[in-house]
Amino acid sequence: MSRARVLVLNSALGPLDYRVPHGMAVEPGSVVVAPLGPRQLLGVVWEPDYMPSDAEVGDNRLRPLLAVADVPPLGAALRRLVEWTAAYYLAPPASVVRMSLASTSALEGARTVTEYRIGGTIPARLTPQREQALARIGDRQGLIRELATAADVSDAVIRGLVKCGAIEAVEVDIDSPYPRPDPAFGPPMLSDQQRDAADTLVAAVAARAFQPTLLDGVTGSGKTEVYFEAIAEAIRAGRQTIVLLPEIALTEPFLKRFHDRFGCEPVAWHSGLRSTQRRRAWRAIASGEALVTVGARSALFLPYRNLGLIVVDEAHETSFKQEDGVHYHARDVAVMRGKFEACPVILASATPAIETRQQVALGRYAELKLPARFGSAELPTIEAIDLIEHPPERGRWLAPKLVAALGETLERREQALLFLNRRGYAPLTLCRTCGHRFQCPNCTAWMVEHRLTRRLACHHCGHIEPVPRLCPECKNEDTLVACGPGVERIADEVTALFPAAKVAVVTSDTIWSPAKAAEFVGRMEAGDIDIVVGTQLVTKGYHFPNLTLVGVVDADLGLEGGDLRAAERTFQQIRQVSGRAGRGEKPGHVYIQTHSPKAQVMRALITGDADAFYEAETDARKDAGAPPFGRYAAIVVSSEDQACANDTAKLVGRTAPLVDGMAVYGPAPAPLAMLRGRHRYRLLVHARRALDVQDVIRDWLGALDWPAKVRVTVDVDPYSFL
Ligand code: ADP
Ligand code: ZN
Question: How many angstroms is it from 533 CA to the middle of ligand 1?
Answer without folding.
Answer: 24
